[in-house]
Amino acid sequence: MAEQRKALALISGGLDSLLAARVVQEQGVHVEGVNFYTGFCVEGHTHAIRKKDRNRAKRNNALWVAEQLGIKLHIVDIVDEYKEIVFNPRYGYGANLNPCLDCKIFMVGKAREWIEHHGFDFVITGEVVGQRPKSQRSETMPLVQHDSGIEDRLLRPLCAHRLPETLPEREGWVDRDRLYGFSGRGRKPQMALAKAFGFSDYAQPAGGCCFLTDHSYSVKLRDLWQARGERQYDLDDIMLLKVGRHIRPAPHFKVIVSREEGEGNFMAGYRKQYPSLKTVSHGGPIALLDGSPTREDIELAARIVARYSQGRDAQEMILEYRTITGETSELRIKPLHPDDLPREWQI
Ligand code: SF4
Predict the structure, then answer these.
(1) Which of 62, 106, 183, 280 is the most buried (most CB within 10 A)?
(2) pLDDT tens digits for range 210-244
(3) Atom of ligand 1 nearest to the CA of 98
(4) Pocket residue to mutate for ligand 1, from 135, 137, 211, most atoms within 8 A of Cβ
């Protein structure tokens, strides 16, 4: 009996990676999945917190895809290694701070290391030629293979007919005739294939799989780098950029104000790392202070927080200021008038 070949599929949680893995699985190959965690992932984070996304399934779609396929999923934390890709992408950024081409090369390279270490034969991605303006073009496909070191051990089942034969096809591990030739941004062929496989409930295609494709997120990340005087971040920084209103009245400090209860609860978990403000006399948000605010800055921050509270029209409001070690003090302030909150403070 022929040896069963083994493939590792990059699983983002979207439809394309689901289909690509299924196409290969159908051909008798043993497939396992890998999902790389960068800290910028959209999955299961903000839409699990915010009310406006209440109707979306609060699930980790990569795990869900693995469950649909009946495969093992390896979730690999690459938060630290990934920073270099974000700071210095060799091939530059996309429309925002998304280094998609470098990111793809990096992830395929990590997958290559993984298969070499675990005795797997090849890697699968759900890429489709022409789907993404920067990272999924016919010219960049060979670049990903070469720079990642995977060369012809990378199979893209959804667009294989538009690409040269790969090792798994040449060796007969998969039948090229049972692969596809999808191209472009249209989703109809994928939807038809999903239907043929019996998948009806899959993650709807979004703008990108991570926050780096988001304009306002990228603006906040650039602001953070500028304020810190260097391109640096840690996991807490990039998590907090996903929530709240970010207001920077001066280069040396920033106020992060929760916009709703879910965000407030999430941010409360950071009160041991950031000084915080909470409204006392009226219902209102919680805020975290980032940087090195002076006593006057804390008062200004309290006035800003009050402006987003139920006491915004009151003559005086009481807030509680809390240090990271838990000491509290009371602040009595007048809420800031909206006209006194310059547009340029709002990141
Ligand atoms: S959207 Fe984000 S995770 Fe996806 S390829 Fe681009 S940089 Fe990488």
Answers:
(1) 62
(2) 899 999 999 999 999 999 999 999 999 999 999 99
(3) 7
(4) 135
